[in-house]
Amino acid sequence: MTQASTPQPPTGPVIGRTLEESTPWHPERPRPAGAPNVVVVVLDDVGFGQLGSFGADIATPTMDRLAADGLRYNRFHVTALCSASRAALLTGRNHHAVGMGLLVDLPTGFPGYSARIPKSAASVARVLRDEGWSTMAVGKWHLTPRNDRSAVGPFDTWPLGLGFEHYYGFLHGDANQWTPNLVRDNSFVEPPAGPEDGYHLTEDLVDQALGMVRDQQNAAPEKPFFLYFAPGTAHAPHQVPSAWSDQYAGHFDQGWERWREEVFARQVAAGVVPEGAPLTPRPDWLPDWSRLSAQERRLFARFQEVYAGFISHFDHHLGRLMAGLEQMGVSDNTMVILTSDNGASAEGGEVGSINEHRYGYRVPDSLEDNLAGIDDIGGHRAYNHYPWGWAWAGNSPFKLWKRHTWLGGTRTPLIVKPAGGTPDAGAVRHQLSHIVDIFPTILDVCGVTPPDEVDGVAQQHIDGTSMVSTFTDSAAPDVTTTQYFEMTGSRSIIHDGWKATTDHVPSGMLDEEKLLPGSRDLESDRWSLYRLEDDFAEVNDLADEYPAVVADLERVWWAEAERNQVLPLQDDMQGRIGAMEPPLWPSPARMVIHPGGSPVADEMVPTLADGTTVEADVEIPETGGSGVLAAMGDWTNGWALVVLDGAPAMLLNLTSTPYAVRTSTELPPGRHRIGFRFDTEAGLGVLLCDDEVVGSAALPEGMGTSGLQIGGGGLRVGHDAGFPVSEDYRPPFRWNGTLHTVTFHGPAARSAEDRTALLGALIRKE
Q: Does pLDDT of 766 surpass 50?
């Protein structure tokens, strides 16, 4: 006799002729009621010693409270660059292993540098969403390849394509804090207010994050949420309301050496640097503060006052976010993780920069220009970045900075406040860990098992390890025992308690190329060796004493490089342009823009560097023409084709230096074609009306590439927004006649090689 089988639940509805003869069936859906919420805060370009709880005297009370209620990790590592660290955090995989070996602004035809997170590495947002969490991202993204950042996508690498249900922020690597280029979900949007209204990006991002969480809690208060919050702070431009920077007036007059020593003393007292650890000395190529002129000291101190105000301003508004979570009653059940994507940035160079776009175009900064703009630092007119002496000081006690795999580039603050608190609140944890460990830590806390498949795609090996054991056990073993690092040729490896680091100096930054000692040839790199347990800051090089250990670690590095798709090595970002992915929809030889739509993304706008003509088809009213025909960028970098008092003009700006091509001839009423072309051979900007030259002016070499304005608001036609390109008009300065089209007439044939060769300035910048 056959034993009766256990009845199985139905796998679908029973459909009869009538409802009485039918049985409904509802597929099971995850419902993680009571599970913890997670908030991840990713700062930008903030060094190990630039937060109060890590030794700084910059006011960060909100972050200090998080540290006091949670744990600080003093041996936490990142990848040394923004896109790479963010990809590693969200996927739990090493950055090359998910195609993010460099920046999304330079996608190439090599697996480790594709700039596309593969479907085999589902993000923590996607995994949590599938398990029932609400998922939201606010702020900087910088994980979408440059050619995909337009109104047509493709959107699979935008936040909603990688597991987030809502997004508000900016896709680029940086943003003007007063006039950012914003995206909501999959659409470009204008900021809710203008700089004249007191708008600031940080405040807007916090408002949006609070709104998202509030809406989620109002709809389903028991449903947990995951919030990824990534402000522009403290990436250049360092821009902040003057009340925040002015509170630091005179605060840094002692200079970067003395300030660094004070930070270090507080770090030792707080336990974030071990007792007895030495402070690395100032390198002789970095300016000695005592030998600077009074003008230089005042200028350099002002740059740092603004940076400190930028940090404190963010901290204040992060406090609003934390207070909002508390008011909604979700704070106690929320784990907060706060870190930075890389160490402090030296892209301001030796003397700082009043306009960081100059770094991208390899335009040297000068003391004279910076002194002339000292009152603009931090405000509407500047796109400023501090001198690298402050980056060195802000990474105390380590060497170097962002883009290098010395600890100054790869070791950043990490604060974790576990949901429900920790019995060891305020303690410092010393376990070695890496940003790939955040992904498995979040899933562990949430009780979620990483899936083997997502959408039928087998998931690749997770490189990170959960850090949860360290939450309650100060003696827990290191989370990370072997970890490679590589960034534009700078290489290092942690293995079995040792760290080996090369002396390679990547190209791409003028002052580094000129002043930094070290190897410029990958084949000639020298590996230094440090025992991490005894040497917190890479001070005592043991390479000559233990050559066999160096050789072993170099072999481990190459093995990790092979396993993680690091090869081929390339130390020059611009050198990868030849392997750069061509756009899926390249600009045609004749590209027509119709008015009335949202701004056209920067990357989709043809450059003016190759003789392309931009031409507006307009009708001049009887009262005379006036207004913007087409505009891109602003007074820090950009161009605008306008009509001023009836006469056409092309207004240009190259890294805060204005130029113009004008005519005094007013246009008669009726239909006309108004255009501009940059004659690259003659170095002339040519103003056209109905194919006739009506004006010309000499322009500097490279002026046409200002059409690649970085992080701008895209191309607008018939009006402008944000800041103007020059003082000749004030946005929106709407065209008062009829604008039919704006057309770009490019070369009849433009090879992929020719097109990508024009991207050098952008690649250096980002």
A: no
